[in-house]
C-alpha cells in the first residue's frame, strides 16, 4: 500500500518503474504467504487466528518497546484485540459448535478484555503523538510499522469477509469490530513521524520487512516454511539496497543516518499470558482523551457512546447474551486461573 501511494505521487518514470518491479515481487510474496493457509479453515477460525496474532504480536512489541509513550499505546490496544478474540470465540461456539481452544492451542487465554462496547471512541481521541524520527530508537520505528500494518490487514480482512455471512449476529459482529479496527489503524499509524521523507519511509518499510523475515526464519521449525522466510529475506535485502540508493539519490542523505546500526533482537511468538494478566488487572478501565489516557469516562467519550449505541446493546454484547441463552455460560479458556479483574469473574 505504501509503495502504491509513493508511485501515485511520483513524477519520475524511472522511479515508478523501479517501484513497480519491487511491488510485483512483494505481490508474489503475499500470495506465497497467504496461500500457506491450507484452505480447510472457516473464515471464523482464520478470524480467531488473526486476533490471536494481534494479541501476541502487540504484547511482544509492548514488552520490547523502549519508549514509555509508545509502549502505553501498545498496552492500551492489546486489551481490545484480546476482547475481540473472546467475542469471536463465543460466536464460533455458537454458529460452528466448536471451541476456540483448538485454534489458540494453549498459547493464549480467552476471556474478557476491555469490553468491545467501550472501544467506540470519538475519532479525535484515536490520534496519538508521533515518535520523533531523529531521536527515537530504530526499534520503535519497526514496532510502529509492524503493528500498523497488521491492524490494516485485519481491518481489510473483516471488511471483505464480514458481509459474506448470513447469520445476522455474525454480520453485525464483524461490522462492529471492523469499525474498531479502523480506530486501531488510526491509533497506530499516528505513532509514525509524518516528518519522515517518502524515501526515508521507503527505506524503513524495506528494512522492517528484512527484520520480520529474519525473525521468522530464526524461529521457524518447519524446514519447508523456513526456506520461504529465507528466500523472502534475500528478496528484501535487494529491495532495501534499491530503497537505499533511491534515498541517496533523491534525499541526498545516507540511509545509515536513519537505520539501526545492527538488526535488533529477533521478534518471537511466545506465550504472553502473565503479561496480559497484569495488563488486565491494571489497564482494563483506560480510555483515551486527546493524545493521552484517562480512567474516567469523559464528556466526549460519553457523548460518542450515546451516539453510537443509542441505548441499545451492540453486537459484541448481544453475541454474549445469545451464547448465554444457548449454553448457560460464556466460552473461555482460563488456563492460569480465574480472570484477574474481579468484575470479570464467572462466579
Ligand atoms: Fe516484501
Ligand atoms: Fe481486533
Ligand atoms: Fe485491532
Ligand atoms: Fe520489500
| Order of helical and strand elements | HHHHHHHHHHEEHH
Number of helices: 12
Q: Give the low-confidence spans.
A: none
Number of strands: 2
Separation, N- and C-terminal Cα atoms: 47 Å
- Main β-sheet: number of strands, strand sense, barrel status? 2 strands, antiparallel
Per-chain topology:
Blueprint: H1 2-8, H2 13-34, H3 43-64, H4 68-96, H5 101-104, H6 138-161, H7 168-189, H8 198-219, H9 223-251, H10 273-283, E1 287-289, E2 292-294, H11 299-309, H12 315-327
Antiparallel strand pairs: 1-2
Helix pairs in contact: 2-9, 3-4, 3-6, 4-7, 4-10, 4-12, 6-7, 6-8, 7-12, 8-9
The structure holds fe (ii) ion (4 copies).
One fe (ii) ion (FE2) binds at residues 51, 54, 81, 84, 154, 177, 181.
Describe the structure.
This protein is an all-alpha fold and 347 residues long. It is built from 12 helices and 2 strands; from the N terminus they run H-H-H-H-H-H-H-H-H-H-E-E-H-H. The chain is globular. The chain binds fe (ii) ion (FE2) (4 copies).
